[in-house]
Amino acid sequence: MPLVVKKDRTEAVLSAVADLVKTKLLVGIPAETADRAAEAGEPQPPNNATIGYAMEFGLPERNIPARPHLLPGVQAVLPQAVSRLRTAGTAAIDGDSGAVTKAYHTVGLLAQNAIRAKITEGPFVPLSPRTLARRRARGRKGEKPLTDTGALRAAYTYVIRGKGR
């Protein structure tokens, strides 16, 4: 019995697989949205990406302890992310490019929200009395690390880009 092709989906499958392979998901603080506005009387502050890095790994030379939030946030959703990307791989083999794109957005949102939750929930090394005094001098009342203005937390997001960009 000869093989009869009723519907050739080769093009759709190859396109969806190419989308999956040629795409990368980046989670963090994109350079184009990293800048922060200076407060009244303050010189230009470091951008949110610089602050995020410093908080993630600490700056021992400036007596700033590490307060990891990015890596633990992403690690917390890794099993869900892997499951979603496996589903995307199956969808790509079925020729469903839309499902691949949707999976990347879903995984990006999972990671973004996990990082933001980690910033909100901690736990982190407490702020020093000196830092708390500086906060109070600026009219701030909060004592939680990483949450002075909320700008760092809001800066975390995700982007989907083609590899090579």
TrEMBL record:
Domain of life: Bacteria
Protein name from the UniProt record: Bacteriophage protein
Organism: Methylobacterium jeotgali
